[in-house]
Amino acid sequence: MTSSNHKSTETLAKKIQFAVIGGGVIGGGWVARFLLMGSDVKIFDPDPEAPRKIDEVLSNARRSLPALYEHALPPEGSLSFVNSISEAVDGSDWVSECVPEQLKLKHSVMAEIQSHCPKSAIITSSTSGFKPSELQQGSDNPEQIIVAHPFNPVYLLPLVELVGNITTVDRAKAMLTSLGMFPLHVRKEIDAHIADRLLEAVWREGLWLINDDIATTQEIDDAIRFGFGLRWAQMGMFETYRVAGGEAGMAHFIAQFGPCLEWPWTKLMDVPELTDELIDKVAGQSDEQSGHYSIRELERLRDDNLISIMRGLKTQNWGAGELLNQFDKGLHKPLLDKNQSNTSLITVKRVIPADWTDYNQHMNESRYGQVFSDAADTVMIRVGADEDYIASGLSYFTVDCHIKYIEECKAGDDIYVASRISLAEGKKLKLAHQMCNVDGRVLAEADQLLVHVDLQARKSCMPSEEVLQRINKLAKQYGNSAGEIK
Amino acid sequence: MTSSNHKSTETLAKKIQFAVIGGGVIGGGWVARFLLMGSDVKIFDPDPEAPRKIDEVLSNARRSLPALYEHALPPEGSLSFVNSISEAVDGSDWVSECVPEQLKLKHSVMAEIQSHCPKSAIITSSTSGFKPSELQQGSDNPEQIIVAHPFNPVYLLPLVELVGNITTVDRAKAMLTSLGMFPLHVRKEIDAHIADRLLEAVWREGLWLINDDIATTQEIDDAIRFGFGLRWAQMGMFETYRVAGGEAGMAHFIAQFGPCLEWPWTKLMDVPELTDELIDKVAGQSDEQSGHYSIRELERLRDDNLISIMRGLKTQNWGAGELLNQFDKGLHKPLLDKNQSNTSLITVKRVIPADWTDYNQHMNESRYGQVFSDAADTVMIRVGADEDYIASGLSYFTVDCHIKYIEECKAGDDIYVASRISLAEGKKLKLAHQMCNVDGRVLAEADQLLVHVDLQARKSCMPSEEVLQRINKLAKQYGNSAGEIK
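C-alpha cells for the assembled complex are given below, as produced in the milestone run.
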C-alpha cells in the first residue's frame, strides 16, 4: 500500500471522540464498533479484569466485522483505559453508558457524566428496559440523555433502538449510520422499547414449554432456526404474514388467524380486541410498508432471501445449512457412480442460484470458476483424493486456471460440466472442463492445473500410489471425453 | 447429458406415492416439495381454481428449491388432479390433509381418507393448532393419524413438527428427511405445538404495540430483521442467550435476566416461577445442547454464521444486506478517488471473509476470480462504465480470464489489488491485476479480457467516446503500474 492511499482511507473515518462507561459484553461491543470504524475511544470500568474482557471482545470483532464488507475499513482508532468517568467523558462527542440495570446506579453515573462532558455531547444509555424519562430524573439538561439500545454482538448486529428527545435522536441517528448501524426511532417511550418486548414474550413462552416438559432448549431452538427464524432474518413478522395472506391481503389474514389468538393456547391470554379499527390500522400500515410490491413479487423476494440465507449457512455447515450439505451428498452420488457413463465424465450437474448473478443480470465470472472448482472436486473424489485423504494430510491445490467465457448464464439455468484429464504427470494434474447447458451447447471452457500438496508443510509432494493409479485409469477412460481446449 | 446418467439420478428419487387433500398455500407447498424431489402426487381439491393456484406455487418452487443445492434434483414427479378423496389416497404411502382449520371438517375428511387409503399409509394433518388426539376422534386406527406441521414456504423451509404415535412419527421422520426437510418430534401433544406458541406470543405483543401506537408494522419488522431475527436464523433463542451469558453460564443468565420477567413490561404477565429446579432444568438442557463448545467457540460460530447470513442478504440487496451495501459505497470511495496514488491503480482493498474458504482451509480458487472481478468493477467505474452507463444499456463482459495462483490466502487476511490496462483497442479491454498481501507480496495474478456490449442485444459494440477517452487516459497513467504478467 502506498502511504497516500492510506491517507485517503483515513479521511473517511469521522474522528469522533467516544467514551464508554462500563466494559461488559455490551460496553465492549460498543468499544469494538467505534474503534474498528476508525474512531478513538476512552473507557472507564473499575473492574481490574476489564482490559482482558474488552480485549476478548475486540479480538472477536477484528476477525468478523471487516468480513462484512467488500472494502477495507478505515485504520483502527486508539483505545485508552482511564481512571474516572470525568476523564473518560472530557471532550467526548458521544458517551455510551453500559452499567448494570439498576436505576439508582444509572442516576449517579448520569450525573457524573453530565457534570464533566461537553454540553453538545450525546449521552446514551444502553439500557434494555428503562425509559429516557426515568434515566433523566434529577438532570437539569434532560434532552441530552437518550436511550441507544444495541443488540449483542454489538460489533455485528445493525439494530440500535433510539428513544428520547427528537433533536438528540436525529443527531444520534446520523452518528450510528456512519458506524454502519441501523438506528430505529422508538417514537413513544415504553418499558423495554420494542424488540425486548417481543423477546420477553417468546422467552416467557419458552420457559413455560420447558417448565411443562413439552420441549427442551434444543427442541425450541430447532423450532426457531429451521423455521420462522429464517423468515425473520429478512422480512420480520408482519411482512411475512402479508405474503402468507396472499392476494386477499393483510386484513383477510388477521380476520382468518385472529380468532386463534383467543383459543386457550398459551399461558398468557390478554389479547387486544380485534376491532375493525385495529384491523384497518394493521392492514393500512402493512400497505404503507410493502404495498409497492405485489404479493407475487414479495414471494419471490422472500424466496431469494431465504435461499441466500440458507446458502450462507451452508458455507458454515450450520443449522439449515448443515441439513442442506447432508442432502447434497446424496444428490452428488450419481456423479460419483463409477458406471455413470461410458462417453463423458460428468462432474457437475446443477441449477444456477440467484446469489451467483451480478449487475449485468447474468452469472458473475467468478462463479464460472466456482463451477469448475466443483468439477475438480468431483474428479478429486473419483481419484480417491477425498475427505479421508485430505484428513490424512494430502490434497491438491489449483495453481493455474484459464477460463473462456463463451455464453452468458442466468439464475435458474440447468447446466452440467463434462471433464477430462488432459495431463497426469507426478505431482501435476491438468483438467479440461466444458460447461454446457442442457442441450449440450458449450457455455464456457476451463483449463486447470493442479499440484499435489502436503497440507502440513503446505508444499508440493507426490500423490499416493493408489491416487496415481486411479488418475491413470480415469485418464485412460475419459482423456478425450471433452473437446480439445485451445 | 447421456441417458445413462439420467437413469442413475432417477434411482435416487424414492418413488413414494403422495396424496394431498386441499390445495391452498400449504397444500400447494407440499405438492411442490414432493414433486421437485422426484415423487408422484395426486391431489384433490373441489375448488375449480385449485390447478391455477397450485401452478403458481409450483412456479415459485421450481425457480427456488433447486437453487438451494450444489447438485441437480431428481427429475420432477408427475402431478394428477383427481375428483375425490378416495381416488387421491388409493395406493398412497403418505397423505397430507390440508383443509381449513375446522375440527368437524377434518374429522369427516380423515374418515374418508382412512376408509380408502392403505393400512400402511401415513396420514398427516398440516394443522397449526389441533392435537392428534382431537384429529383421531372416531377413528378405529388412530395411530395412523399424526400431525406434520410445515412452515410457509413449505418448498423451502426445512421445519416440520411431528406429533403423535411414535412408530408412525419415526416412519414420517425418515420420509421427511428424504425430502430434505427437518422433522422435529413434539414429544407431548399440546395446542399449537411448539413454534406457533412462540409465534402467537410475538404476534399478540406486536398487535398490542400497534394498538397502543407505540410502533408500526414496519418498525416492528425492522426491530426483528435488523436485530434478533438474524440471531434466530442460526442459533434460536436459548443457545444465543447461552453465548450472551458468557463464561458464567446459562444459570447465571437466567438469574440475571429472570427478574425482568416480572417487571410490568408487557400486557401478559403470567410467568413461570423461577424455582431452582426450573433454572437447573434450563441450564442442564442448555449444557446438553451446546456444552461440547466453549463460549469462545460459540461466539465465533455465531459471528461467522451472522456474517454468512448478512453476506447472503447483500447479494439480494435486502434488509441488513442493503444496509451493508450502502455502507460499502462509502468505503469504496478512496479507491475511486482520482488522486489516490501516482504509482499504482489500487482497485481492491479488503479482508477475506470466512465464507470464501474451502476444505483446504484457504480461500477457494473461485474467490480469487471474485477479487479480480471486483478489481475490474473499480476500473469500470473509473472509466465511466458505471451504474448510470449500465442503466443506459451499455456494459463490459469478461470473455477470458487467466489466473495464476502464487500463494494461499486465509480468512481474515488483508489484501489489495494493483491493476493496469494492458490493452485498450476499440471494443476490447485487457486488464492485468496483481493481488498482494499488506506487505506487497504478490499472491496471485490475473489477465482479463473484457469486451464492450450492448445489454439489449447482448452483443459486442463500441464504447462511448467518453469511456474510450477515459480508458486511454487511465492507460497512460497506469499502463505499467503492475508488473508485466507472463
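The CA atoms of residues 346 and 418 of chain B lie 5 Å apart. Chain B touches chain A through 191 residues (CB under 8 Å). Further analysis is deferred to the final report.
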